[in-house]
Design goal:
Elements (H helix, E strand, L loop, with lengths): L1 H19 L1 E3 L1 H11 L1 H21 L5 E10 L5 E3 L1 H5 L3 H17 L5 E3 L2 E15 L2 H67 L5 H36 L11 E3 L21 H21 L5 E12 L7 E11 L5 H69 L5 H36 L6
Parallel strand pairs: 1-6
Antiparallel strand pairs: 2-5, 3-4, 5-7, 7-8
Length: 454
Protein backbone atom coordinates (compact mmCIF):
# COMPACT_ATOMS: atom_id res chain seq x y z
CA UNK A 1 0.00 0.00 0.00
CA UNK A 2 2.86 2.33 0.84
CA UNK A 3 4.48 1.69 -2.56
CA UNK A 4 1.23 2.54 -4.34
CA UNK A 5 0.88 5.76 -2.35
CA UNK A 6 4.49 6.74 -3.14
CA UNK A 7 3.94 6.13 -6.87
CA UNK A 8 0.80 8.27 -6.85
CA UNK A 9 2.60 11.14 -5.10
CA UNK A 10 5.51 10.90 -7.56
CA UNK A 11 3.23 11.01 -10.59
CA UNK A 12 1.30 13.95 -9.13
CA UNK A 13 4.48 15.94 -8.54
CA UNK A 14 5.73 15.13 -12.04
CA UNK A 15 2.45 16.30 -13.59
CA UNK A 16 2.61 19.52 -11.55
CA UNK A 17 6.11 20.25 -12.85
CA UNK A 18 5.00 19.67 -16.44
CA UNK A 19 2.07 22.05 -15.98
CA UNK A 20 4.39 24.73 -14.58
CA UNK A 21 6.76 24.47 -17.55
CA UNK A 22 6.23 26.69 -20.56
CA UNK A 23 7.45 25.11 -23.78
CA UNK A 24 8.75 27.51 -26.41
CA UNK A 25 9.30 26.47 -30.01
CA UNK A 26 11.62 28.08 -32.53
CA UNK A 27 8.61 29.34 -34.50
CA UNK A 28 7.29 31.05 -31.36
CA UNK A 29 10.57 32.91 -30.99
CA UNK A 30 10.63 33.95 -34.65
CA UNK A 31 7.08 35.28 -34.42
CA UNK A 32 7.72 37.16 -31.18
CA UNK A 33 10.83 38.87 -32.53
CA UNK A 34 8.78 40.55 -35.29
CA UNK A 35 6.81 42.53 -32.73
CA UNK A 36 9.08 42.46 -29.71
CA UNK A 37 12.43 43.51 -31.17
CA UNK A 38 12.93 47.32 -31.20
CA UNK A 39 14.96 47.31 -34.43
CA UNK A 40 12.17 45.53 -36.30
CA UNK A 41 9.62 48.00 -34.94
CA UNK A 42 11.86 50.85 -36.09
CA UNK A 43 12.20 49.34 -39.57
CA UNK A 44 8.40 49.28 -39.82
CA UNK A 45 8.39 52.96 -38.87
CA UNK A 46 10.94 53.57 -41.64
CA UNK A 47 8.47 52.07 -44.11
CA UNK A 48 5.71 54.35 -42.85
CA UNK A 49 8.06 57.33 -43.13
CA UNK A 50 8.87 56.40 -46.74
CA UNK A 51 5.18 56.12 -47.55
CA UNK A 52 4.59 59.52 -45.95
CA UNK A 53 7.39 60.94 -48.11
CA UNK A 54 5.78 59.44 -51.20
CA UNK A 55 2.44 61.02 -50.24
CA UNK A 56 4.22 64.33 -49.68
CA UNK A 57 5.79 64.25 -53.14
CA UNK A 58 2.47 63.18 -54.68
CA UNK A 59 0.99 66.56 -53.74
CA UNK A 60 3.27 68.16 -56.37
CA UNK A 61 0.79 67.00 -59.02
CA UNK A 62 -1.95 69.21 -57.55
CA UNK A 63 -2.25 72.99 -57.82
CA UNK A 64 -0.42 75.14 -55.32
CA UNK A 65 -3.28 77.00 -53.66
CA UNK A 66 -2.67 79.89 -51.26
CA UNK A 67 -4.42 82.82 -49.65
CA UNK A 68 -2.50 86.06 -50.04
CA UNK A 69 -3.01 89.45 -48.48
CA UNK A 70 -1.13 92.73 -48.35
CA UNK A 71 -1.52 96.29 -47.19
CA UNK A 72 0.65 99.40 -47.33
CA UNK A 73 0.91 103.00 -46.14
CA UNK A 74 3.32 105.48 -47.72
CA UNK A 75 4.59 108.59 -45.96
CA UNK A 76 4.13 110.39 -49.27
CA UNK A 77 1.94 109.24 -52.17
CA UNK A 78 3.80 106.95 -54.49
CA UNK A 79 2.40 108.82 -57.55
CA UNK A 80 2.09 112.67 -57.79
CA UNK A 81 1.33 114.33 -61.16
CA UNK A 82 1.36 118.13 -61.81
CA UNK A 83 0.53 120.06 -65.01
CA UNK A 84 4.25 120.51 -65.57
CA UNK A 85 4.63 116.72 -65.70
CA UNK A 86 2.05 116.63 -68.48
CA UNK A 87 2.89 119.84 -70.48
CA UNK A 88 6.64 119.95 -70.13
CA UNK A 89 8.80 123.07 -69.59
CA UNK A 90 8.45 125.00 -72.85
CA UNK A 91 7.36 128.68 -72.90
CA UNK A 92 3.87 127.73 -74.04
CA UNK A 93 3.73 125.06 -71.34
CA UNK A 94 4.65 127.58 -68.62
CA UNK A 95 2.01 129.97 -69.95
CA UNK A 96 -0.67 127.28 -69.86
CA UNK A 97 0.55 126.11 -66.46
CA UNK A 98 0.32 129.59 -64.95
CA UNK A 99 -3.11 130.12 -66.49
CA UNK A 100 -4.35 126.86 -65.02
CA UNK A 101 -2.92 127.68 -61.59
CA UNK A 102 -4.76 131.05 -61.59
CA UNK A 103 -8.03 129.35 -62.47
CA UNK A 104 -7.45 126.57 -59.92
CA UNK A 105 -6.71 129.00 -57.12
CA UNK A 106 -9.74 131.13 -58.04
CA UNK A 107 -12.20 128.21 -58.10
CA UNK A 108 -10.54 125.82 -55.62
CA UNK A 109 -9.51 123.20 -58.18
CA UNK A 110 -6.65 120.75 -57.40
CA UNK A 111 -3.25 121.76 -58.68
CA UNK A 112 -1.91 118.17 -58.86
CA UNK A 113 -3.00 114.53 -58.85
CA UNK A 114 -1.68 112.05 -56.27
CA UNK A 115 -2.51 108.40 -55.57
CA UNK A 116 -1.18 105.20 -53.94
CA UNK A 117 -0.90 106.74 -50.50
CA UNK A 118 -2.35 103.66 -48.79
CA UNK A 119 -4.29 100.54 -49.76
CA UNK A 120 -4.86 96.83 -49.26
CA UNK A 121 -5.73 93.66 -51.17
CA UNK A 122 -6.34 89.97 -50.45
CA UNK A 123 -7.32 86.99 -52.53
CA UNK A 124 -6.99 83.33 -53.43
CA UNK A 125 -4.31 82.13 -55.88
CA UNK A 126 -3.94 78.71 -57.52
CA UNK A 127 -0.95 77.73 -59.67
CA UNK A 128 -0.99 74.41 -61.56
CA UNK A 129 2.42 73.18 -62.77
CA UNK A 130 2.22 71.84 -66.32
CA UNK A 131 5.86 70.93 -66.82
CA UNK A 132 8.73 71.24 -64.34
CA UNK A 133 11.61 69.61 -66.15
CA UNK A 134 10.38 66.13 -65.26
CA UNK A 135 11.10 66.70 -61.56
CA UNK A 136 7.55 65.96 -60.46
CA UNK A 137 7.16 62.66 -62.31
CA UNK A 138 10.68 61.45 -61.57
CA UNK A 139 10.43 62.65 -57.98
CA UNK A 140 7.35 60.49 -57.48
CA UNK A 141 9.10 57.54 -59.08
CA UNK A 142 12.06 58.08 -56.78
CA UNK A 143 9.72 58.17 -53.77
CA UNK A 144 8.18 54.86 -54.91
CA UNK A 145 11.65 53.34 -55.12
CA UNK A 146 12.30 54.67 -51.62
CA UNK A 147 9.23 52.85 -50.28
CA UNK A 148 10.27 49.59 -51.94
CA UNK A 149 13.83 50.01 -50.66
CA UNK A 150 12.66 50.62 -47.08
CA UNK A 151 10.49 47.48 -47.29
CA UNK A 152 13.46 45.45 -48.50
CA UNK A 153 15.65 46.92 -45.78
CA UNK A 154 13.04 45.85 -43.23
CA UNK A 155 12.99 42.35 -44.74
CA UNK A 156 16.80 42.26 -44.59
CA UNK A 157 16.82 43.30 -40.92
CA UNK A 158 14.18 40.71 -40.13
CA UNK A 159 16.09 37.99 -41.97
CA UNK A 160 19.33 38.81 -40.17
CA UNK A 161 17.52 39.00 -36.85
CA UNK A 162 15.89 35.61 -37.42
CA UNK A 163 19.29 34.09 -38.15
CA UNK A 164 20.57 35.62 -34.93
CA UNK A 165 17.54 34.37 -33.00
CA UNK A 166 17.97 30.86 -34.41
CA UNK A 167 21.60 30.90 -33.32
CA UNK A 168 20.61 31.90 -29.80
CA UNK A 169 17.80 29.35 -29.76
CA UNK A 170 19.99 26.46 -30.85
CA UNK A 171 22.62 27.49 -28.30
CA UNK A 172 20.07 26.96 -25.53
CA UNK A 173 18.99 23.67 -27.14
CA UNK A 174 22.59 22.48 -27.30
CA UNK A 175 23.07 23.30 -23.62
CA UNK A 176 19.85 21.45 -22.78
CA UNK A 177 21.07 18.42 -24.75
CA UNK A 178 24.42 18.57 -22.97
CA UNK A 179 22.52 18.61 -19.69
CA UNK A 180 20.83 15.38 -20.77
CA UNK A 181 24.25 13.91 -21.53
CA UNK A 182 25.47 14.86 -18.06
CA UNK A 183 22.36 13.30 -16.52
CA UNK A 184 23.07 10.07 -18.37
CA UNK A 185 26.72 10.17 -17.31
CA UNK A 186 25.62 10.78 -13.73
CA UNK A 187 23.36 7.72 -13.95
CA UNK A 188 26.30 5.61 -15.11
CA UNK A 189 28.51 6.89 -12.30
CA UNK A 190 25.75 6.32 -9.76
CA UNK A 191 25.50 2.71 -10.89
CA UNK A 192 29.27 2.35 -10.64
CA UNK A 193 29.23 4.05 -7.22
CA UNK A 194 26.66 1.60 -5.90
CA UNK A 195 28.80 -1.28 -7.16
CA UNK A 196 32.14 0.07 -5.91
CA UNK A 197 30.87 0.91 -2.43
CA UNK A 198 29.36 -2.55 -2.11
CA UNK A 199 32.64 -4.08 -3.33
CA UNK A 200 34.62 -1.88 -0.92
CA UNK A 201 32.55 -3.07 2.02
CA UNK A 202 33.29 -6.63 0.91
CA UNK A 203 36.99 -5.84 0.54
CA UNK A 204 37.01 -6.52 -3.20
CA UNK A 205 38.24 -3.11 -4.45
CA UNK A 206 40.95 -0.76 -3.33
CA UNK A 207 40.00 2.45 -1.49
CA UNK A 208 41.71 4.44 -4.25
CA UNK A 209 38.99 3.34 -6.68
CA UNK A 210 36.36 4.75 -4.38
CA UNK A 211 38.26 8.01 -4.03
CA UNK A 212 38.78 8.35 -7.79
CA UNK A 213 35.12 7.67 -8.54
CA UNK A 214 34.00 10.06 -5.79
CA UNK A 215 36.23 12.78 -7.22
CA UNK A 216 34.75 12.20 -10.69
CA UNK A 217 31.20 12.45 -9.34
CA UNK A 218 32.08 15.77 -7.68
CA UNK A 219 33.48 17.10 -10.95
CA UNK A 220 30.32 16.04 -12.74
CA UNK A 221 28.11 17.76 -10.15
CA UNK A 222 30.17 20.94 -10.46
CA UNK A 223 29.84 20.79 -14.27
CA UNK A 224 26.06 20.49 -13.96
CA UNK A 225 25.93 23.60 -11.76
CA UNK A 226 27.95 25.60 -14.29
CA UNK A 227 25.84 24.28 -17.15
CA UNK A 228 22.61 25.34 -15.41
CA UNK A 229 24.04 28.84 -15.04
CA UNK A 230 25.00 28.85 -18.72
CA UNK A 231 21.50 27.77 -19.72
CA UNK A 232 19.95 30.60 -17.70
CA UNK A 233 22.28 33.16 -19.24
CA UNK A 234 21.59 31.86 -22.77
CA UNK A 235 17.83 31.96 -22.13
CA UNK A 236 17.99 35.56 -20.92
CA UNK A 237 19.95 36.53 -24.02
CA UNK A 238 17.36 34.83 -26.25
CA UNK A 239 14.35 36.33 -24.46
CA UNK A 240 15.84 39.84 -24.56
CA UNK A 241 16.45 39.51 -28.29
CA UNK A 242 12.83 38.55 -29.04
CA UNK A 243 11.37 41.08 -26.58
CA UNK A 244 9.81 38.46 -24.33
CA UNK A 245 9.04 39.32 -20.73
CA UNK A 246 10.25 36.83 -18.14
CA UNK A 247 11.04 36.48 -14.46
CA UNK A 248 14.55 35.47 -13.48
CA UNK A 249 13.38 32.99 -10.87
CA UNK A 250 11.09 31.34 -13.45
CA UNK A 251 13.80 30.70 -16.04
CA UNK A 252 13.93 26.98 -15.24
CA UNK A 253 10.23 26.74 -16.15
CA UNK A 254 10.90 27.86 -19.75
CA UNK A 255 11.87 24.84 -21.83
CA UNK A 256 12.75 25.04 -25.52
CA UNK A 257 10.79 22.32 -27.26
CA UNK A 258 13.12 21.63 -30.20
CA UNK A 259 15.65 18.81 -29.97
CA UNK A 260 18.54 17.66 -32.12
CA UNK A 261 16.62 14.61 -33.32
CA UNK A 262 16.49 14.76 -37.09
CA UNK A 263 18.52 17.98 -37.34
CA UNK A 264 21.20 16.29 -39.40
CA UNK A 265 18.81 14.74 -41.91
CA UNK A 266 18.96 15.98 -45.50
CA UNK A 267 16.67 18.82 -46.57
CA UNK A 268 16.54 18.22 -50.33
CA UNK A 269 18.61 21.32 -51.20
CA UNK A 270 20.52 21.14 -54.47
CA UNK A 271 22.35 24.46 -54.63
CA UNK A 272 20.37 25.44 -57.76
CA UNK A 273 17.40 27.09 -56.04
CA UNK A 274 16.00 30.08 -57.95
CA UNK A 275 15.40 32.43 -55.04
CA UNK A 276 16.81 35.95 -55.36
CA UNK A 277 18.44 37.26 -52.17
CA UNK A 278 17.40 40.65 -50.84
CA UNK A 279 20.87 42.08 -51.40
CA UNK A 280 20.56 41.64 -55.18
CA UNK A 281 17.21 43.44 -55.24
CA UNK A 282 18.66 46.29 -53.22
CA UNK A 283 21.57 46.62 -55.66
CA UNK A 284 19.14 46.86 -58.59
CA UNK A 285 17.10 49.43 -56.71
CA UNK A 286 20.18 51.48 -55.84
CA UNK A 287 21.08 51.85 -59.52
CA UNK A 288 17.49 52.75 -60.42
CA UNK A 289 17.45 55.39 -57.67
CA UNK A 290 20.68 56.96 -58.94
CA UNK A 291 19.29 57.26 -62.45
CA UNK A 292 16.14 58.94 -61.13
CA UNK A 293 18.22 61.28 -58.96
CA UNK A 294 20.04 62.36 -62.11
CA UNK A 295 16.79 63.17 -63.89
CA UNK A 296 15.48 65.15 -60.92
CA UNK A 297 18.72 67.04 -60.51
CA UNK A 298 19.10 67.95 -64.17
CA UNK A 299 15.41 68.88 -64.32
CA UNK A 300 16.17 71.98 -62.24
CA UNK A 301 17.73 73.54 -65.36
CA UNK A 302 14.98 72.60 -67.83
CA UNK A 303 12.04 74.84 -68.86
CA UNK A 304 9.10 75.17 -66.49
CA UNK A 305 5.50 75.91 -67.47
CA UNK A 306 2.57 76.64 -65.19
CA UNK A 307 -0.87 78.21 -65.32
CA UNK A 308 -2.56 80.08 -62.52
CA UNK A 309 -5.66 81.92 -61.42
CA UNK A 310 -6.04 84.61 -58.79
CA UNK A 311 -9.26 86.07 -57.48
CA UNK A 312 -9.75 88.52 -54.65
CA UNK A 313 -10.74 91.95 -53.37
CA UNK A 314 -8.54 95.05 -53.31
CA UNK A 315 -8.49 98.81 -52.72
CA UNK A 316 -4.97 99.77 -53.70
CA UNK A 317 -5.70 103.53 -53.86
CA UNK A 318 -7.30 103.64 -50.43
CA UNK A 319 -10.23 105.68 -51.64
CA UNK A 320 -12.93 103.24 -50.57
CA UNK A 321 -13.70 102.15 -54.13
CA UNK A 322 -12.33 98.60 -53.86
CA UNK A 323 -13.79 95.75 -55.88
CA UNK A 324 -13.50 92.02 -56.59
CA UNK A 325 -11.45 90.97 -59.60
CA UNK A 326 -9.93 87.83 -61.11
CA UNK A 327 -6.72 87.34 -63.07
CA UNK A 328 -5.57 84.33 -65.11
CA UNK A 329 -1.93 83.96 -66.11
CA UNK A 330 0.64 81.63 -67.67
CA UNK A 331 4.16 81.32 -66.32
CA UNK A 332 7.04 80.16 -68.52
CA UNK A 333 10.61 79.90 -67.31
CA UNK A 334 13.43 78.99 -69.70
CA UNK A 335 16.84 78.92 -68.02
CA UNK A 336 19.63 80.10 -70.30
CA UNK A 337 22.72 80.53 -68.14
CA UNK A 338 22.14 77.14 -66.41
CA UNK A 339 22.66 75.04 -69.55
CA UNK A 340 26.38 74.62 -68.94
CA UNK A 341 25.80 73.85 -65.28
CA UNK A 342 23.15 71.27 -66.22
CA UNK A 343 25.55 69.55 -68.63
CA UNK A 344 28.28 69.39 -65.98
CA UNK A 345 25.85 68.07 -63.40
CA UNK A 346 24.63 65.40 -65.83
CA UNK A 347 28.21 64.23 -66.36
CA UNK A 348 28.81 64.15 -62.62
CA UNK A 349 25.67 62.09 -62.05
CA UNK A 350 26.71 59.73 -64.87
CA UNK A 351 29.94 59.08 -62.99
CA UNK A 352 27.96 58.28 -59.85
CA UNK A 353 25.76 55.87 -61.81
CA UNK A 354 28.84 54.19 -63.26
CA UNK A 355 30.29 53.79 -59.76
CA UNK A 356 27.09 52.10 -58.61
CA UNK A 357 27.18 49.85 -61.67
CA UNK A 358 30.79 48.87 -60.93
CA UNK A 359 29.96 48.12 -57.30
CA UNK A 360 26.95 46.09 -58.36
CA UNK A 361 29.06 43.98 -60.72
CA UNK A 362 31.59 43.28 -57.97
CA UNK A 363 28.98 42.56 -55.31
CA UNK A 364 27.15 40.21 -57.69
CA UNK A 365 30.30 38.12 -57.84
CA UNK A 366 30.67 38.28 -54.07
CA UNK A 367 27.07 37.14 -53.60
CA UNK A 368 27.66 34.22 -55.94
CA UNK A 369 30.72 33.31 -53.89
CA UNK A 370 28.66 33.59 -50.72
CA UNK A 371 26.00 31.30 -52.20
CA UNK A 372 28.56 28.62 -53.01
CA UNK A 373 30.09 28.97 -49.56
CA UNK A 374 26.71 28.62 -47.83
CA UNK A 375 25.93 25.44 -49.75
CA UNK A 376 29.43 24.13 -49.07
CA UNK A 377 28.79 24.74 -45.36
CA UNK A 378 25.69 22.57 -45.64
CA UNK A 379 27.58 19.73 -47.27
CA UNK A 380 30.48 19.96 -44.83
CA UNK A 381 28.35 20.16 -41.68
CA UNK A 382 26.14 17.29 -42.90
CA UNK A 383 29.18 15.07 -43.39
CA UNK A 384 30.53 16.07 -39.99
CA UNK A 385 27.18 15.23 -38.36
CA UNK A 386 27.15 11.79 -39.99
CA UNK A 387 30.69 11.06 -38.78
CA UNK A 388 29.98 12.24 -35.24
CA UNK A 389 26.75 10.20 -35.16
CA UNK A 390 28.68 7.02 -35.86
CA UNK A 391 31.34 8.00 -33.34
CA UNK A 392 28.61 8.57 -30.74
CA UNK A 393 27.15 5.13 -31.37
CA UNK A 394 30.57 3.56 -30.92
CA UNK A 395 31.26 5.54 -27.73
CA UNK A 396 27.87 4.65 -26.29
CA UNK A 397 28.41 0.96 -26.97
CA UNK A 398 31.93 1.12 -25.57
CA UNK A 399 30.64 2.77 -22.40
CA UNK A 400 27.95 0.11 -21.97
CA UNK A 401 30.49 -2.72 -22.37
CA UNK A 402 32.99 -1.03 -20.09
CA UNK A 403 30.39 -0.66 -17.31
CA UNK A 404 29.50 -4.35 -17.64
CA UNK A 405 33.19 -5.30 -17.61
CA UNK A 406 33.81 -3.14 -14.56
CA UNK A 407 30.98 -4.76 -12.65
CA UNK A 408 32.46 -8.10 -13.66
CA UNK A 409 35.89 -7.00 -12.43
CA UNK A 410 37.57 -7.19 -15.84
CA UNK A 411 38.54 -3.46 -16.09
CA UNK A 412 39.59 -0.78 -13.62
CA UNK A 413 37.66 2.30 -12.56
CA UNK A 414 40.07 4.37 -14.61
CA UNK A 415 38.97 2.54 -17.76
CA UNK A 416 35.34 3.15 -16.83
CA UNK A 417 35.90 6.88 -16.32
CA UNK A 418 37.82 7.11 -19.59
CA UNK A 419 34.93 5.43 -21.44
CA UNK A 420 32.46 7.82 -19.78
CA UNK A 421 34.59 10.82 -20.81
CA UNK A 422 34.82 9.62 -24.41
CA UNK A 423 31.05 9.17 -24.52
CA UNK A 424 30.46 12.69 -23.24
CA UNK A 425 32.90 14.16 -25.75
CA UNK A 426 31.31 12.24 -28.62
CA UNK A 427 27.82 13.30 -27.53
CA UNK A 428 28.75 16.98 -27.28
CA UNK A 429 30.52 16.85 -30.65
CA UNK A 430 27.44 15.32 -32.29
CA UNK A 431 25.19 17.96 -30.73
CA UNK A 432 27.41 20.76 -32.04
CA UNK A 433 27.63 19.23 -35.53
CA UNK A 434 23.84 18.78 -35.78
CA UNK A 435 23.17 22.36 -34.76
CA UNK A 436 25.84 23.71 -37.14
CA UNK A 437 24.14 21.78 -39.95
CA UNK A 438 20.73 23.22 -39.08
CA UNK A 439 22.12 26.76 -38.92
CA UNK A 440 23.81 26.29 -42.31
CA UNK A 441 20.56 25.03 -43.85
CA UNK A 442 18.58 27.94 -42.44
CA UNK A 443 21.15 30.49 -43.63
CA UNK A 444 20.94 29.13 -47.18
CA UNK A 445 17.19 28.57 -47.24
CA UNK A 446 16.18 32.05 -46.04
CA UNK A 447 18.21 33.61 -48.88
CA UNK A 448 17.46 31.36 -51.83
CA UNK A 449 14.34 29.35 -51.02
CA UNK A 450 11.99 32.07 -49.76
CA UNK A 451 10.88 34.55 -52.39
CA UNK A 452 10.41 38.09 -51.10
CA UNK A 453 7.62 40.28 -52.38
CA UNK A 454 8.68 43.14 -54.57
Amino acid sequence: MRKIFTAIVTLTCFATVLDAQQRISLQDCLEMCESGNPYIRNSKLDIQASKAMKSEVMWSFFPDVSINGMGYYAQKPLIRITPTDLLGTSDLAWTLNNAYLDIANRFGLPTHYSTLHNGYAFGLMAVQPIYAGGRIINGNRLATVGVRASELQADLKLRNLKEEIEGKYWLVVSLQEKAKTLDKAESVLDSAWFFVTSARDAGLVAPSDVTELSHKRSELASGKVKLRSGIKLAKMDLFNAIGMEYQYFDLDNYVLSETIDGLSEGDGLTGEESGVPIEVKLLDMQQEAKELEKKVSVGEFLPEVGVGLSYGYGDMQGNGNGKFNGVGFVSVKIPLTGIGKAASRARRMDYEIQKVSNEREYLDEQLQLQRRKLFLDIETSESQAEVSREALKDAEEAQRRCLADYEAGRVTVTDLLQAELEYRSASEKHIEDCIEYRKAVNAYRCRYCEQQDD
